[in-house]
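Morning. Coffee machine broken again, so started the prediction first thing and wrote up yesterday's gels while waiting. Chain of 165 residues, entered below exactly as on the submission form.
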Amino acid sequence: MKFKDLSQNSKASLAFTGMMIFVLLILKPAPSFDDLTELSGKLEWFESIGKHRDTLRFKLKEHKEKFVYHSVAGSIGSVTDALNKENATLKIAFDPNDSDSAIWEFEDFHPVYQVISDNHLIKSYRSTVSKYKSNSELGIWLLIGGLLASCLFIVMDWSIAKDAN
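Came back before lunch.
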C-alpha cells in the first residue's frame, strides 16, 4: 500500500503523530534549581496576557530583566495576588538562559519558577517543575494515542484495499 492510497483519517493521524514527535523533541526539561538566578525587588508593573488572561508578565523596579509566569505552572490567583500586594518585596527564581517571547516582540521575558512575597512562599520551584513535567507527560500520551490511531486507520485501509481486490 502506498501513501497516496491511505485514507484522509490515516494521513491526518500520521500528521498528528509527526507533530507530536516534533513537539516532544524540541521540549526541553525545566532547569535545575542551581541553574536559576534569584532576584528580589518591588514590582514596577505587571500584566495578564493570553486568551484567558492567565499568563503573567512583570518587571521588578530594581532590575532590567522582564519576567513571565506561565499558566501551566498553576496558582495564577495566588501569584496575581502576590504581584498586586502593595509594596511587597518579591523574590523570584528565573532562568536567565531562557527567553520566552513571541517572534514579533523585541523583548525578552524570562520564565519564573518560584515566587516568594514578603518571605512567604507563594509558588515553589518543586511545584512548578511538577506541573511542567505533568504537561510534558500529556504530550507522550497524545503521541501514543496518535500512533495507535495511525495503526488502526492503516490496518482499516489495508483491509479495505485487500477486500477490493
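The chain has a mean pLDDT of 86. Going to sketch it on the whiteboard this afternoon.
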